[in-house]
Amino acid sequence: MASQEFGVKPPKPAKGLRNLQKAFTNFWAGRAKYPNFLKLRNGGSAEFTRSAFKWKDKQLWLAKCHEPLPIRWSRTLPENCEPSTVTVKLDASGRWFVARIHAQIADARKDFFHKLTTRLVRENQTIVVEDLAVKNMIKNHKLAQAIADASWSELVRQLEYKCQWYGRILVKIDRWFPSSKRCGHCGHVVDKLPLDVREWDCPECGTHHDRDINAANNILAAGLAVIVCGANIRPDGHKSKGQLRKTPLASQRG
User: What is the mean pLDDT of residues 38-60?
Assistant: First the structure.
């Protein structure tokens, strides 16, 4: 992201142990491969906590540096967020790079989710969501970061307990339900629909679809079918045990 020569001390052993624990935790949870120990020739990294750097006017000074670092951001920090930890990395030529800046993004995201879920639950009697296989989705390295940033499981978790608080109905659609590939007009299901296809025309009825809007309409319709008649909707010949299911609260109210 940015480079500059720094007088940086190697990371302390305690940090290495924390990283090792995190690596094995991700491995046993199925989110990463078995940890490999990095060789010294691949470079090292050093982590700076809040007391070892200064953040002012969106500029960053490391300890003992007289000028701010020339950082090129990979993504914009949320408003009113400050970095809590800075990690710099040593490259093969002996230069140190600002590799990552851990901002208080998690807190900002959680605050946004709380406001969003509270509004959704207050304004709607019924909420329908997809039960996505997030662990499998993040195996796609091109999309892993974006999927992880979305924090889908946290959004659903908040919806679950808030629906119970407010007496609302939450319906989860099984991950195998073809919400994107099903035509919301005639019900035809296309064989394939790559992620880069954002709009498509139904080969049966010719209806033009926006991928996301069509999927949302199908999810809502399927959820309402569960509430009304306990329907088990899936494409013909599908081997899944069930495409839809109610949460315990929805079952009690149904």
Answer: 73
